[in-house]
Amino acid sequence: MTPPRQVSFIVAGAQKSGTSALDHYLREHPELCLPRRKELHFFDTDRNFAAEPVDYAAYHAAFAPGPGQRLLGEVTPAYLYWPTAAQRIARYNPAMRLIMVLRSPITRAFSHWNMSRQKRREHLAFLQALAAEPERVRTLPLEQAKRFTYADRGFYTQQLKRLWRHFPQEQTIVFKSEELLAASAAVLARIADFLDIARFPPIADKTVHAREYDTTMTAEEKRYLIGVFEPEVRELERLLRWDCSAWLA
């Protein structure tokens, strides 16, 4: 069998939603080839698209398919959020299959802030960082501001609608992070059907990058984020026909 030459599926989002666990699950399937490292960040790196024609050689060099591995795929959860990534991916492969895992934007924001604090990228307290975020996003280059986009990344409906401007919805599949955590076998069965591959072998449950928090979200912080995100969550429920009431509890 001729080795595949083009990437055919991407886990495109969302950050801090369980994509590391999904990356590990996907590596267990004998028909799938993933790169040696998670998060190639090819389509959200602007310098890769500064000249024409775009050179995909370095992207393809990240993959080394073995016998029987007929699909190339990667996991870079920033792609859903990055404004130009969907258009770039569609230009590269209009038939690309895209997988998204979405987490409550409230807990996602807090998890993102905790990660930034632990990596010493963030010196502000959580509510202060949320208050500072709009000005940071407005004034900093996105490459710098992205580390502070705690709330902005949680507005999933506009990100999905942008993706669907470049891909038909049937080339995308979206899960809740709770589904992946509580019913991984069912999620993987749906992904197998979506990618037209054999069902996954039995795989032990995986929890990856379950970071210990230095603090817990206060009632005040949660009330604030519920106020920020309730309209967004309701819109997402309508868009995906989901029940997200637990996210606002």
Description:
By secondary structure, the protein is of the alpha/beta class. The chain has a single domain (7-248), classed as Rossmann fold. The chain is 41% helix and 10% strand. The protein has helices at residues 19-26, 57-61, 85-92, 105-118, 126-139, 142-145, 156-164, 177-182, 184-195, 219-240; strands at 7-13, 32-33, 71-75, 97-102, 172-176. Strands 2-3-1-4-5 form a five-stranded parallel β-sheet. Strand 2, helix 2 and strand 3 (71-75) form a beta-alpha-beta unit. The radius of gyration is 18 Å and the shape is globular. The mean pLDDT is 95.
CATH superfamily: P-loop containing nucleotide triphosphate hydrolases
Question: Which CATH C-level class is it?
Answer: Alpha Beta
Strand content range: 5-15%
CATH architecture heading:
3-Layer(aba) Sandwich
Shape: globular
Order of helices and strands: EHEHEHEHHHHEHHH
Number of helices: 10
Query: What can be said about the biggest beta sheet?
Result: 5 strands, parallel
- The overall number of domains is 1
Q: Going across the major beta sheet, what is the strand order?
A: 2-3-1-4-5
From the 3D structure, determine the CATH topology. Rossmann fold
Radius of gyration computed on alpha carbons: 18 Å
Q: Into which percent range does the helicity of residues fall?
A: 40-55%
End-to-end gap? 52 Å
Features:
alpha/beta, Rossmann fold, 5 strands, single chain, 41% helix, 5-stranded parallel sheet, globular, 249 residues, 10 helices
In short:
The chain has helices at residues 19-26, 57-61, 85-92, 105-118, 126-139, 142-145, 156-164, 177-182, 184-195, 219-240, and strands at 7-13, 32-33, 71-75, 97-102, 172-176. With 249 residues, it is of the alpha/beta class.
